[in-house]
Amino acid sequence: MSQKIDQDHSRFRKIVRGKIKQNLRKYISNGDLMGRQGKEKVSIPLPQIDIPRFRFGPRDQGGVGQGEGDVGDQLAPGEGEGGAGEAGDSPGEHVLEVDVSFEELAEILGEELELPRIEPRGTDRIVSQRLKYSSIRRTGPNSLRHFKRTYRTALKRQISMGAYNFDKPVIVPVPDDMRYRSWKVEPLPETNAVIVYMMDVSGSMGDEQKEIVRIESFWIDTWLRSQYDGLETRFLIHDATAKEVDRDTFFRTRESGGTMISSVYKLCAQIIEQEYPPSDWNIYPFHFSDGDNWSVDDTALCIRLLREKVLPAANVFCYGQVESPYGSGQFIKDLREHFNEEKDGVITSEIAGREAIVDSIKTFLGKGK
Cα–Cα distance between 73 and 83 in angstroms, integer? Predict the structure, then answer.
């Protein structure tokens, strides 16, 4: 019975996985999963599939094609039986919510978008330690007693001494027979990464633009967490000045000032220099803006900060430009003019709306860096 249940559960998970892959673009663009996430799982709504069956009408109705009208008459839409605001007696569409782990969600994202596995930069790793029970010793606490080894040792002793009774086999261990599990400390290499999210919160970035950033950053987080044992996130916002905030503030803040992008690049470079040495960390700065900057001089400063401070430390630098009716959209052109994707590691993406989020994610993560 348990094997049958396991088979049914496995088949159900495959069906769920197929449905998620089929509707992944819709889930991403709508942001349906944002409010359904827990600590380790995401709740995904899936329509229930009913088995096809015949439905019989009341007996006093006629058969097929019965009723008023002649051949060739145009059919008019039928009227519902219930009035406005009245309760109905027919079942509605049922939605099944399925919990999916972030790890499985990342696998689905990688398969659907054909994302390559990320190759960590460099060879230096942050090393932690773990205990591995890999040997046996003669002393130890009773909680670590190895019963099978103890039994075998006692059996060998009794047989060698001629004390083993084949008709009434009774094994009585003595203190010298006791065996205990032992451990050794093993170095556990961990490739750590940090994502530095930067977002323009000036007056030209509206709620819809920030929602697009929120959705895209969720999926970027999901994928990168599946690639690294340790992942930290830092959140920076800027208008004419920059500051670090928590996750909730990052997605909810609405400012009305001007825009000086150089302020956030300075703060980003400072955080990397003080806390994340490139020899130990894989660093991913992501900047989202509508492309409107204060002046040409500030844009020149941004180019210099990126070239001298940020790019030498980062695996890649990703800039996503969210389309806004108020932004000029010039900044992405300046980046493309001064930097080459392959040579400098600067990846740019234009996000015209929610439908473009999927393509933007693939642009950012599809290089495997």
Answer: 27
